[in-house]
């Protein structure tokens, strides 16, 4: 296992000393544990070449397909790839060096990897044989064992987690992690333990991401434009010889998934992991296809479309033969949950009973016989039309038009608090209120999150905001001087007032995470909210807001209308109306249709409207009208339905 050179080591090392944390070191497994999941997926990689004998670790991720670090199978003295016949894979090895290996060994047929790895090593600014962050980023390989060799003792394999969005991986998340492999450094490991399977104690290891540490924030890509998927873990080390060893992470269903491989060390107190993203997955998939013993393939071309007010239709491409079905996942409260399983050869699923104005995210996973699984598909996202009723109902103002956006929905928790949905590193959860002024918005907000204690102290993190909730107005951050308005840390309900002039406005509360730690409840709250129209000049329609289409206004209760000539408006169902001045709650309006004339309604009684000239109530059959034509009402006085125009 190689060391990361330069300032990166100094940076992480100084942090370790600052935090006073103890480094987690590998511990030997009992022989009985090596046949249990996830340890049973792991093996020892022996590499013999003209440059001597080297060793590393590898993980079985599919029947006969293994993953490791590229430098384990690369001769960095002669700058050539090791021949396959010089490499041996020992599954579930747990015998000391020099003792008979009970599990036997297999010769990989071939490896798939970035061919440019050799060039990067040769041109590495740290010197030949060393690795800069740029070289580490393609330090990944997948190989396959001959399809004629049956691995009857290895019948199940871990799901591979693929970061499909070029975002910070679950390696960053606050969840349990563990590294398994075969360390071989006698400076740290007794010689009698060389050749025995080790693990690091499961825990939430703190991770840095070299996409931020080693390059400008606006690139996050290496010299070949690959997404930087390399992660440094401080205060955990597995020592030399463990290169290629897998890191397992608990997924949202509490199962271990392999999310990356060990590619280097960070000084003596850390380890470097190359995460598995789409770029790395291609080599695994290439090996699966080359071995040819599995026809189970990952779903591709997943799409999602809202087909009605209550349904989202998912469609995908079936690439498998012999699958037993497909599992449908939906992001719920920040966690991926299986919501349905459909039969084999199915390429569609309808999610019914969806809610307006919400974010819905989906993945689909192919299921095979036994416990065979492919990685989940790339996710798709749909924001449903309409306005979310969750926040409006919670604040007892059902006429307000909210939309939740970002990676996760705001929701009412068990403590009856409206809170931002759970998000991963670099993610956000946004709640947006659209409203037409003039009026006053009073609200109280709070946060429980990671905070930069040195925010106001001169130093390396001066002025940096960690996890925080921000306030935006009309698409821009609300500023106080040169600083955006935000809450970060452990801050209880804090009152704030916004006086909005006439016109359309959007107010957003955005909880946003940086790529590092998680503290507290890791969320923001909107504790109270009250919109009060300006009593001197209120907008006639209570809770009215501007739609995306220019010139259109709407409300959650009165529906959409063209408002370019206000107070004259063209309602999409009721036709031409004149909106009379009011108090911001009661709506008095005039219809050009002689059968209707002067009318009254409000958000609490609509679709009932009061016919002022006749002094009777009419019940409007919503969706019956089309810009003033073919309107149907139920006349309360005559007790009959009546068509107008």
Automatic annotation (TrEMBL):
Keywords, ordered alphabetically: Signal
Signal peptide start and end residues: 1-19
Name recorded for this polypeptide: Fibronectin type-III domain-containing protein
UniProt cross-references to PROSITE patterns, sorted A to Z: FN3
Keyword Signal carried by entry: yes
Residue ranges of domain Fibronectin type-III in the record: 298-388
């Amino acid at each position: 296992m190689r060391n990361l050179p330069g300032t990166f080591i100094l940076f992480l090392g100084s942090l370790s000393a600052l935090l006073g944390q103890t480094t987690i070191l590998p511990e030997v497994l009992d022989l009985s544990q090596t046949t249990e999941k996830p340890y049973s997926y792991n093996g020892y990689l022996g590499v013999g070449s003209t440059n001597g004998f080297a060793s590393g670790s590898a993980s079985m991720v599919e029947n006969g397909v293994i993953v490791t670090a590229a430098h384990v199978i690369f001769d960095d003295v002669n700058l050539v790839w090791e021949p396959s016949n010089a490499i041996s894979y020992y599954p579930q090895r747990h015998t000391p060096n020099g003792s008979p290996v009970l599990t036997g060994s297999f010769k990989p047929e071939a490896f798939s990897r970035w061919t440019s790895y050799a060039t990067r090593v040769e041109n590495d600014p740290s010197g030949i044989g060393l690795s800069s962050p740029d070289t580490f980023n393609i330090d990944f390989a997948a190989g396959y064992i001959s399809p004629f060799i049956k691995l009857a003792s290895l019948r199940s394999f871990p799901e591979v987690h693929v970061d499909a969005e070029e975002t910070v991986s679950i390696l960053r998340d606050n969840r349990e992690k563990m590294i398994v492999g075969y360390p071989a450094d006698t400076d740290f490991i007794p010689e009698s333990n060389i050749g025995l399977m080790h693990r690091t104690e499961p825990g939430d290891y703190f991770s840095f991401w070299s996409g931020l540490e080693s390059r400008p924030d606006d690139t996050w890509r290496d010299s070949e434009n690959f997404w930087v998927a390399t992660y440094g873990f401080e205060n955990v080390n597995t020592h030399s010889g463990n290169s290629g060893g897998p890191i397992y992470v608990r997924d949202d269903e509490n199962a271990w998934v392999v999310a990356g491989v060990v590619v280097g060390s960070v000084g003596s107190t850390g380890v470097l992991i190359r995460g598995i993203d789409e770029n790395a997955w291609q080599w695994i998939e290439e090996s699966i296809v080359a071995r040819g013993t599995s026809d189970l393939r990952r779903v591709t071309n997943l799409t999602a479309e809202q087909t009605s007010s209550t349904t989202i239709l998912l469609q995908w491409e079936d690439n498998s033969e012999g699958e037993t079905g497909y599992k449908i996942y939906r992001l719920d409260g920040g966690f991926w949950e299986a919501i349905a399983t459909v039969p084999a050869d199915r390429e569609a699923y309808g999610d019914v009973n969806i809610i307006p104005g919400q974010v819905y995210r989906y993945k689909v996973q192919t299921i095979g016989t036994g416990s065979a699984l492919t990685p989940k598909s790339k996710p798709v996202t749909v924001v449903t039309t309409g306005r979310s009723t969750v926040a409006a109902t919670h604040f007892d103002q059902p006429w307000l038009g909210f939309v939740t956006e970002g990676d996760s929905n705001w929701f009412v928790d068990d403590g009856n608090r409206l809170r931002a949905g759970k998000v991963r590193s670099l993610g956000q959860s946004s709640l947006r209120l659209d409203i037409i002024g003039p009026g006053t918005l009073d609200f109280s907000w709070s946060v429980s999150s990671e905070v930069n204690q040195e925010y106001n102290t001169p130093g390396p993190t001066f002025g940096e905001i960690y996890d925080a909730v921000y306030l935006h107005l009309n698409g821009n951050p609300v500023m106080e001087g040169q600083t955006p308005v935000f809450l970060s840390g452990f801050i209880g309900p804090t009152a704030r007032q916004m006086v909005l002039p006439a016109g359309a406005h959007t107010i957003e509360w955005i909880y946003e995470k940086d790529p590092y730690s998680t503290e507290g409840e890791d969320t923001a709250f909107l504790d109270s909210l009250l919109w009060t129209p300006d009593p001197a000049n209120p907008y006639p329609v209570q809770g009215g807001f501007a739609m995306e289409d220019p010139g259109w206004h709407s409300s959650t209760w009165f529906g959409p209308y063209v408002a370019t000539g206000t107070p004259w408006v063209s309602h999409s169902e009721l036709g031409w109306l004149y909106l009379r001045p009011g108090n911001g709650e009661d709506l008095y309006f005039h219809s050009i249709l002689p059968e209707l004339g002067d009318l009254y309604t409000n958000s609490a009684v609509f679709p009932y409207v009061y016919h002022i000239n006749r002094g009777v109530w009419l019940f409007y059959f919503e969706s019956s009208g089309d810009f003033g034509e073919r309107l149907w009402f139920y006349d309360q006085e005559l007790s009959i339905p009546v068509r107008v125009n």
